[in-house]
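Progress report, Aim 2. The chain analyzed during this reporting quarter is listed below.
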Amino acid sequence: MTGLAAGWDHADFAHGRAGDAEHDVELLLAFLNTRDLELGTDVLDDAGTWSLWVTERDLGLAGDPDEARAVRNSLRSSLGERHDGPDPTPAAGVIRVDLSHGVPTLASADAVGAVLGAAARLAVLGSWERFKICQADGCRWAFYDRSRNRSRTWCSMQVCGNREKARNWRERRALSVT
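Predicted structure tokens for the chain:
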């Protein structure tokens, strides 16, 4: 299968899509957030839902949702996600370098490879450390820290940050009253 089938080839590169860091950021965030703790949903719980997610993004073959879950868990763990139990099983996907039209591009025939290709490109660009997991209890949403000093802690200051700051204030106030 060509890179085009996975959504990553020289034609996309010429149109500014493949290799576009922002596209890679959005793809990786969408994949990392296929599980929503607040809603109690997980795209990878159902093969049909996973296949639809992959098709909507033109990522080629969906593959096994359990393999995708292992990759997602490994990626989230590498971003510092806290979890109960043993560390996630290391996961891998198949990525190849296509040298078509004189431009080397990462290509994959399946969704997991496309996601890992995006992660690899972002790591090479020095952007991997900007991916973080929201520290708010009950959220755990992955986000991309666009702050100048890379110091964000929460996915949203207006929601998660405000909740955490209010909780901390109530705890401090309760301690000072007693």
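The first strand starts at residue 35 and ends at 36. Residues 157-177 form the longest helix (21 residues). These observations will guide the mutagenesis work planned for the next reporting period.
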